[in-house]
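Today's session is about reading a structure prediction critically. Students often jump straight to the picture, but the first step is always the sequence itself: look for stretches that repeat, for charged clusters, for runs of hydrophobic residues. Only then move on to the predicted structure, which in these notes is written as discrete structure tokens rather than atom positions. Here is the chain we will use throughout the hour.
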Amino acid sequence: MNNDVYTLTPGTGPLLISVPHVGTRIPEDQAQRYLPRALQVEDTDWHLEPVYAFARAMGAGLIVPRYSRFLIDLNRAPDNAPMYAGANNTELCPTRFFTGEAIYHDGQAPDAAEIARRRGSYWRPYHDAITLELSRLKAQHGHAILFDGHSIKSSLPWLFEGTLPDLNLGTANGNSCAPSLRDVLSQVLQSQSRFTQVTDGRFKGGHITRHFGRPAEGQHAIQLEMCWSTYMPESPPYLLDATRTGQLTPVLRALVQTMLDWTPDA
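Below is the predicted structure for this chain, in token form.
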């Protein structure tokens, strides 16, 4: 399914991959609000659509938004509740870069009415599409898995201390998926030695993982936050690196295959 907000390629297996921060568009009628630096949308989860392209041939579905997180963040709660209490967070309609500086001209940040409009025009359609696709997968397979793919610069002091592990699996501390699924995915990461990894560390899963992860209802959700450095240089122009991607793909492929093969506990 293609529309102005997202593209959805349904899969044949019980897995849907979401990459909610890959969009780069800022609507022309909103562009004048933003500082010039913000129009470069530097906090994008760069290139994750091609990075995960292999998964479609394996039977996974893929949903990809068109618009930037600087317009609205699809991985935040609709009421703008902070995702991580006690830490710096960016909002439903972010007003700061991940480095902490403002992204809007003075006085141009969206007001409540504009936030509500963006929520209805961009956030809601993406979430409704996920809801419908997971319902279809559950009806067909008896269970559904949502894999929320993200990437980020490995060092961002405004958001977290130190350097992030390369691969960060998040299951809302085990609440968003069955324990056996969390365990087998963690084992995939632990079985390789090229990349550092952690499960439910600093990034435990955002709103999408927490909202759609309902294991008691046969609906499981997992987030993977990867450092940009696993597949590209962490400085502009943010070009995909074929060598790094080639080293990362086997690990991602193993995760995807594990989710496709997994069956719920009897």
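Discussion point for the tutorial: The radius of gyration is 18 Å.
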